[in-house]
Specification:
Elements (H helix, E strand, L loop, with lengths): L1 H19 L4 E3 L1 H8 L4 E5 L3 H6 L6 E2 L7 H8 L5 E5 L4 H12 L4 E4 L2 H7 L10 E6 L5 E8 L2 E6 L2 E5 L4 E2 L2 E2 L8 E5 L10 H7 E9 L1 H7 L3 E2 L5 E3 L4 E7 L15 E8 L2 E5 L17 E5 L8 H11 L3 E5 L9 H4 L6 E2 L5
Parallel strand pairs: 1-5, 2-3, 2-4, 4-5, 9-12, 12-13, 13-14, 18-19, 19-20, 20-21
Antiparallel strand pairs: 6-7, 7-8, 8-9, 10-11, 15-16, 16-17, 17-18
């Protein structure tokens, strides 16, 4: 009898030990710091939005682990093809987050000691709350894309700064461009106030800034290099293709008439980036090819519905897709719809 009891206790202890094993890795500050510069790693701050705003690791996404919808938001924003590096204040909340994500199939690394240990080691933090994504170009350069607000993007690569549709204020969101590098290129898609802002252009313009725009905005500004649909410009560091962007739904045609506005395809050191502008799923998207990164809009009545965006993504077939310009439209279902298409869909806070 005693032998049987002992055997049962040992078996139970073994099961508890197996169940108690961590399904993620822990990393010290230096090991974690090496991960933050790797394009194949996504860094996630699982603290509250208030804690995040007070200072966080540059480029980290903010998804609060204590919110009921943590996993819903996380699975919408993250891809299992990348390692997930998580941290919080001390390492306890991030350990919980790492366990939850690992149980969903993500490969996770938790920062031991959290951002407290990070600061004590003299590592930098930032109060910049703009989410960013990092990519490698053909020659190994780093291209960083910052999601600013709505349709405003900032891209940096090889010491150059590119801005698309910069605006200083939209609703209760403001962007301080005076704290950002002067633009080498500013690209404007069309004249609407959520894309065209004279003050943002003024703040970003330096001695060597080139402004690329459609004719309507150039007329309103009194300057700018005009590109029409189908035009191409090539410089030493950038190729720009202006592509159509317009409405097709009856009753919406007045918002973006055919032939007036631009989308752009930027080729930076071999990396092709499609910024669709305000458009629906137009036939001309069939000619857009070999796209590494795509930004596609999603808010009716002005641009696409989620279903139209899915259709457009299947036409263009980008490797990475960022729904943008979505306002109050719920785009969280798009990643699941495109999962079988091998498109990495990333939802960012614009």
């Amino acid at each position: 009898m005693m032998k049987r009891i002992l055997t049962c206790l040992l078996t139970f202890t073994g099961l508890m030990s197996a169940c108690g094993q961590k399904n993620y890795e822990d990393a010290g500050v230096e090991e974690f710091a090496a991960l933050t510069g790797d394009p194949q790693v996504t860094v996630v701050d699982v603290r509250t939005a208030e804690e995040y705003a007070e200072g966080h690791i540059d480029g980290a996404l903010n998804i609060d682990v204590r919110q009921d919808d943590f996993l819903t938001k996380a699975t919408a924003a993250l891809t299992k093809e990348k390692k997930i590096a998580v941290y919080c204040r001390s390492g306890r909340r991030s350990a919980s987050a790492a366990g939850k994500l690992a149980a969903e199939g993500y490969q996770c690394v938790n920062l031991k000691g959290g951002i407290t240990a990070w600061k004590e080691a003299g590592k930098p933090v930032t109060t910049d709350t703009y989410e960013r994504d990092v990519f490698k170009t053909a020659s190994g350069k780093t291209l960083t894309i910052h999601a600013l607000v709505h349709a405003s993007l900032r891209m940096t690569c090889g010491g150059k700064a590119y801005y698309i549709d910069p605006v200083t204020k939209l609703g209760n969101k403001t962007v301080d461009y005076s704290a950002m590098p002067k633009a080498d290129y500013i690209l404007i898609t069309h004249e609407h106030g959520d894309h065209f802002d004279k003050e943002a252009i003024r703040q970003l313009t330096g001695d060597h800034t080139r402004l690329i725009t459609n004719k309507r905005c150039a007329d309103m500004l009194g300057f700018g290099e005009v590109m029409n649909n189908g035009d191409t410009k090539t410089t030493d560091d950038l190729k720009i293709e202006a592509v159509p962007a317009y409405n097709t739904t009856e009753g919406h045609l007045q918002f973006h008439p055919k032939g007036r506005d631009n989308g752009y395809i930027l080729t930076v050191d071999g990396l092709r980036i499609y910024v669709a502008g305000d458009t629906e799923d137009i036939p001309e998207m069939g000619a857009v090819s070999d796209i590494d990164i795509a930004f596609m809009p999603c808010n009716q009545p002005y641009t696409m519905t989620p279903d139209q965006l899915v259709k457009a993504a299947r036409t263009v077939k980008p490797k990475v897709l960022f729904p943008y310009h979505f306002g109050q439209t719920d785009v969280n279902g798009i990643p699941a719809q495109l999962k079988s298409d091998s498109i990495d869909v990333r939802i960012r806070k614009f």
